[in-house]
Amino acid sequence: MVLIRVLATLLVLQLSYAQKSSELVIGGGECDRNEHPFLVTLYTAKSKKVYCTGTLISPEWVLTAARCDRKTMQIKIGMHSKTETNEDEKMRLPREKLFCLPSKTYTRWDKDIML
Length: 115
Prior knowledge:
The protein is of the alpha+beta class and about 120 residues long.
């Protein structure tokens, strides 16, 4: 019984000292617009929801995880915020050619790559 009271007290103390997520990175801050133009987001074509991210490795190729493969997807380049539009954002449709392993038996840490 005493142990439960001690644990409950510790939990309440921990929650009372909780910080906002913006304060969790020491010395961190929001990056400037267009500071990372090589980062891309992958959206479902119908719902427009982000389901994956990737890196632009050349003007025509995005490197992402193989589990991000969808029949219909859209690629957004240059997005800084989900709520504010950026005049430098570009929306692209992927070409027909996707390169990933033919088998979907990859594990969480093995062979999970797609171009």
